[in-house]
Amino acid sequence: QFLYFIGATMPFVKVVKNKAYFKRYQVKFKRRREAKTDYYARRRLIQQDKNKYKSPKYRLVVRISNKYILCQIVYAEIVGDKVLCSAHSKELSKYNLTVGLKNYSAAYCTGLLLARRLLKQIGLDETYEGVEEVTGEKIVTKVDGRKYYVEELDDDRRPFRALLDVGTK
Questions:
Q1: Residues paired with 64 in a beta bridge
Q2: Is 129 left (phi over 0), alpha (psi -120 to 50) or beta?
Q3: Which of 25, 126, 138, 151 would you label with 37, given CA atoms 20 to 30 Å apart?
Q4: What pLDDT does residue 143 have?
Q5: Which band of pLDDT confidence, cut at 50, 70 and 90, is reported for residue 8?
Q6: How far is CA 44 from CA 58, 59, 71, 82, 166, in A?
Q7: By the 8 A CB rule, do 114 and 85 touch?
Q8: Rg of the chain (C-alpha set)
Q9: Residue 138 and residue 148: Cα distance in Å, rounded?
Q10: What is the DSSP letter of 24?
Q11: Residue 107: CA count within 13 A, CB half-sphere
Q12: Secondary structure of 127-155 in the HEC alphabet?
């Protein structure tokens, strides 16, 4: 009465990818296919609040290559991203740092070089001079629920703010 098939498997089903399938197929963006850009994260990094008319949202872009470190302050526009300021660890040789241009300390020095260059460019270098004597203490100033890592705030201009963008790696 019962029929048992020993070793019976599911029938082979051919996956149909014909002309109609490929006519409707849309490829991903080129930088997504190359795994260079995470558009989900990028959108959240560059999208500005609607009540801040045309004020850019700055990003600190850090890229690490096989030998060097590149730091940039970048903001987005409709036509493309614009670089406000940049520093490369290759430039540290001017300051007697010639080897180890990719390690942790070189990354710190490159970021410090970028910060001093940017403050000079926007005219805040005399207002926010930085730490003269290293003690290892964190200096925090709270204003309106935000933390600023400076001794005191200027009444006219607040410190520069940027979001860290480390990329997809």
A1: 69
A2: alpha
A3: 25
A4: 82
A5: low
A6: 12, 11, 20, 17, 14
A7: yes
A8: 26
A9: 11
A10: H
A11: 11
A12: CCCCCCCCCCCCCCEEECCEEECCCCCCC
Task: Give the bridge partners for 61, in sequence order.
Answer: 72, 165
Q: What letter represents residue 165's amino acid? A: D
The DSSP letter of residue 6 is: T
Q: Which residues contact 124 (CB under 8 A, 6 or more apart)?
A: 157, 159, 160
| Structure tokens belonging to residue 142 | 């709270």
Kindly state the tokens that stand for 88. Answer: 């490369």
44 backbone φψ class: left, alpha, beta (φ>0; ψ -120 to 50): alpha
Residues near 103 by Cβ (< 8 Å), separated by ≥ 6? none
Enter the DSSP assignment of 127: T
**What are the tokens at 42?**
């990028």
Both tokens assigned to 131: 């730490």
pLDDT digits (tens, 9 = 90+) for 51-92: 988 899 999 999 999 999 999 999 999 999 999 999 999 999
Separation CA 115–CA 86 (nearest Å): 9
Q: What is the DSSP string of 66-115?
A: SS-EEEEEEEE-SS-EEEEEEEEGGGGGGGT--S-TTSHHHHHHHHHHHH
Do 101 and 90 form a contact (C-beta atoms < 8 A)? Answer: yes
- Bridge partners of 70? 63, 88
- For residues 28 and 36, the answer to whether their CB atoms sit within 8 Å is no
Name the residue with tokens 């994260």: 41
